[in-house]
Amino acid sequence: MDLLTAAIAKYGTKHIGGITVGNERILLAYGDSGSATDTNGVAARTIVLDYVQKANATLTGLGLDKTIPVGTSDAGAAATVELCAGVDYYMGEPNAFWNFPLPLPPH
């Protein structure tokens, strides 16, 4: 959180529309053979939501001139009701190329 507070102290909040915590942290935890609701997925979700709460607490403690939403970004399949309920926004990343590889046409 030190980098977050340092950036806000230096640049202000004018150009901040939101703060995204984690990027594919949940997908990387459960991998190709798991799911967002298996043990690894739930553990990763818990970690992400913990950091979201820490970011929210840090922002609140700064007494800023506006409320900055805090969310996360992960694979579309990583979205769960529990995850979405714990963030201000969720950015799903549909990576069709990687999730559903198609044979490439000949050159």
Topology:
Layout: H1 2-11, E1 19-23, H2 25-30, H3 39-62, E2 70-75, H4 81-85, E3 90-93, H5 96-99
Parallel strand pairs: 1-2, 2-3
Describe what you observe in this structure.
This protein has 107 residues and is α/β, with parallel strands linked by helices. It has one domain. Helix content is 46%, strand content 14%. The chain is built from five helices and three strands. The protein has a three-stranded parallel sheet with strand order 1-2-3. β2, α4 (81-85) and β3 form a beta-alpha-beta unit. The protein is globular. The N and C termini lie far apart (48 Å).
Short description:
The chain has 107 residues and is an alpha/beta fold. The chain has helices at 2-11, 25-30, 39-62, 81-85, 96-99, and strands spanning 19-23, 70-75, 90-93.
Strand order, sheet with most strands: 1-2-3
Shape: globular
Oligomer designation: single chain
The count of β-strands is 3
Q: What is the rounded distance between the termini?
A: 48 Å
Look at the helices and sheets and give the structural class: alpha/beta
Q: What is the mean predicted local confidence, pLDDT? A: 89
Radius of gyration: 17 Å
Tags for this entry?
107 residues, alpha/beta, three-stranded parallel beta sheet, 5 helices, globular
